[in-house]
Amino acid sequence: DDGQLPIDNNWIENQIRPIAIGRSNWLFAGSLRAGKRAAAVMSLIQSAKMNGHDPYAYMKDVLTRLPTQKNNQIEELLPHRWQPS
After folding, report:
1. Cβ contacts of residue 62 below 8 Å, gap of 6+?
2. Residue 51 binned pLDDT confidence (cut-offs 50, 70, 90)
3. How high is the mean pLDDT of the chain?
């Protein structure tokens, strides 16, 4: 009834397409533990995208810095607080 709303939902369908396509592949993660790890990594990647970061650059930098990062400064590596080194 509202003429300002789009007539289709193509945009949202395109946004969830990777999830729908990968859903059957994720059944074969190997174990529940592996599935949880994959979900955590995918969440970080999507969060990096949502915060305007290049996911590859973000993950590369975080994985490089992680071994030497102090425990009390680990929050600096989260996508919403991350600054490239």
Report:
1. 44, 77, 82
2. very high
3. 87
